[in-house]
Amino acid sequence: MDTWKEFDQNVISHSAAHHLMAIDDLIGKLGYARVSDIARQLNITRGSVSISLQPLKKAGLVEQDENRHLRLSERGQALVAAIKTKRHLMQRLLAEVLGVDAEQAEIDACKLEHLVSNETARRLLSFLRFLDAQPGRIRDIVTAWNAFDQQCDRDPARCPICADECLAENVSDQPQQGSCP
Amino acid sequence: MTGLSKSEVVAELNRLFAEEVEAALRYLHLSHAVRGTDYLLVGPVLNKGFQETIEHAEVIAHKIRALGAVPRLELNLSLGPQSVAAREALELALTFEEAALEAYQDALHKVEGDVPLEEFIRSQIVTESEHVAELKQLLVE
User: Fold this and answer.
1) For the domain with range A8-72, which CATH number is right: 1.10.10.10, 3.30.230.10, 3.40.980.10, 2.60.210.10?
2) How far does B110 lie from chain A, in Å, by closest CA?
3) Domain boundary assignment for chain A
4) What is the distance in angstroms between the Cα of A39 and the nearest Cα belonging to chain B?
5) Which of B93, B24, B83, B90 has its CA nearest to residue B54?
6) Model confidence at A153, in pLDDT bands (50, 70, 90)?
7) pLDDT confidence of B92, banded at 50, 70, 90?
8) Does residue A19 contact residue A49 with C-beta atoms inside 8 Å?
9) Cβ B15–A45 below 8 Å, yes or no?
10) What is the predicted pLDDT for the residue at A172?
11) % helix, strand, coil for chain B, step of 5
12) Residues B46, B94: contact at Cβ < 8 Å?
């Protein structure tokens, strides 16, 4: 299977995910969501919002009433719930388990939230439940891991994971990509 | 005078400026995304749309300058290399023209009391309404 093509098979794009989340958020805060509210929330033009909403309406994820108020369909709500859950799980994994800086964890979770499969999310949820049920054990593992991590001398010959090249070198000092609104 | 402060009026005009510039860029892109005989059908309409929206953007930029500010433009736009059919191009144009019309209608409520600005926005509403009507007419089955 061409795994890389899976990216394009995704149900919704990153931008679409943010439009759906904005509708959900605005309805929660204001009780309604209009194109102008979404444009303001996402800091983009109304034209851009209107264009982005077209495929979401066609896909039956968003509905618009006669007052031009937008709402999520049942499927849209389910999708938003899944995205929010995935973001939360990814954020926890990155920040609490891997020790990624909280702000970076939020950015990366935002980038991944709509790409992660439900299967992976379910396994991640199970893993975090396991960790929460045994708080002492995770602290011990993270402490042991941090001590181990400091031992990395970037020599592939002595590394149990690297083969011909130092993988840590490949991901060192990568420039930061843009954040999510 | 309007209840808005000068900076709030500028912010409102900046929003309209962004709508028009983005619409102009979309028209420009669409006019080159329709191919073959489809271009013969809708190319002139899209080119006219580009000219008019860029002119509107310029007028708004002048209004912002007249208030002693510099236009602020922030766009989030990515337009793909796929060709677009004539009808789809007109439907897209109608979508962002309607959005621009609504933006002006909202702005009108906000600048109530500032007669010159009100008049300017009213005239824009008339123009945008005409664009929307023209596009709707072209899309009649």
Assistant:
1) 1.10.10.10
2) 14
3) 8-72, 79-150
4) 10
5) B24
6) confident
7) very high
8) yes
9) yes
10) 79
11) 75, 0, 25
12) no
- Which tens digit of pLDDT belongs to each residue from B53-70? 999 999 999 999 999 999
Q: Which CATH architecture group holds A79-150? A: Orthogonal Bundle (1.10)
What's at A116, amino acid-wise? V
Chain B residues near residue A42 by CB distance under 8 angstroms: 76
* Tokens at B52, concatenated: 């008019």
Q: Model confidence over A89-110: pLDDT tens digits?
A: 999 999 988 889 999 999 999 9
- Burial environment of residue A143 by CB neighbours within 10 A (0 to 12, 13 to 18, 19 or more): exposed
d(CA A129, CA A126): 5
Cα B78 from Cα B95, distance rounded (Å): 17
Report the complex ipTM: 0.85
